[in-house]
């Protein structure tokens, strides 16, 4: 019996999850490694090989690290549940004129649920991943907060984790810089791993062509939506587009329309297959409505609560005031923000701590 208990570690084969597993092993935990296969890219008809968490080389790298250090490793096939939930939602959101964040959905509803289920089956006390975040217990709640390395912080994509997940989660990299993790890998003899490039694509769209993915998933989509109107905010029709699902709020490149000045997508209206264009100042909004909330630091949000709100992963965040409205939160920004995209995540912070998060309904 280990002195720290038994922990199930999600191992993708990359540097972060591998070093997390080895650190916990060296700290005296009884480690069990698990690699989840979420997606078979070949089935989508894409032209690029699987990458990241879904390729055979990554599976082998994870298994080899486990074998070398004497702890068990398993592969868990969750393609069916991943596809049914994450892929269907991804497609449905674009068809609804919104911009989804599949990584948040996958973490919240698929990966952690699969980890906890398998952890219980294997008698593991904890689960662990290589995400750059911290968790602590405070006032009978488990609080998610930003990592030491703010350039790698992943609290934005983990806002949906419930208290049951956070209470059993360990994040060994929360107090480390990425450079320190690479040095640890080098010192442990994993020289190639220490130099391994990172993948930032959505795992099931490794070529970053989400439009092509949508067309393969719904073969009739392009024909159904092609030829809608590009309009200005005053309603003037200025051209035809390729179909509203193939555009996102804030998009400038790839519009294939010249109006003599920089122009951006400011609104998408699926009911009429209309894409509204405007100048950069027309992207600015001072408020938004957020639903699908998950409370993290507190069990409620009080009217007038101040927070820094992030509306995208690389967003620095903006000072804001939160006001509950039924099952939603109205966010009033101190200064107007650009490109509020329905379907994306909004995460509220108090210092480094995640207060709560949700899905953007619409900008106001």
Summarize the structure.
By secondary structure, the protein is an alpha/beta fold. It is 26% helix and 30% strand. It has helices at 15-26, 56-69, 79-95, 102-121, 163-166, 178-187, 191-194, 210-217, 221-225; strands at 6-10, 30-37, 73-77, 126-128, 133-138, 141-146, 169-170, 229-232, 237-240, 264-269, 274-278, 284-295, 305-310, 318-325, 328-338, 345-350, 353-363.
Can you describe what's shown?
This protein is α/β, with parallel strands linked by helices. Strands 12-15-14-13-16-17 form a six-stranded antiparallel beta barrel. A five-stranded parallel β-sheet has the order 3-2-1-4-7, sandwiched between helices. A four-stranded mixed β-sheet has the order 9-8-11-10, with no helix packed on it. The protein is 26% helix and 30% strand. The longest helix has 20 residues, at 102-121. It has helices at 15-26, 56-69, 79-95, 102-121, 163-166, 178-187, 191-194, 210-217, 221-225, and strands at 6-10, 30-37, 73-77, 126-128, 133-138, 141-146, 169-170, 229-232, 237-240, 264-269, 274-278, 284-295, 305-310, 318-325, 328-338, 345-350, 353-363. β8 and β9 (237-240) form a beta hairpin. It folds into three domains: 6-194, Rossmann fold; 224-278, SH3 type barrels, CATH 2.30.30; 284-363, Translation factors (Elongation Factor Tu (Ef-tu), domain 3). It contains nine helices and 17 strands. Mean pLDDT is 92; it is low at 47-52.
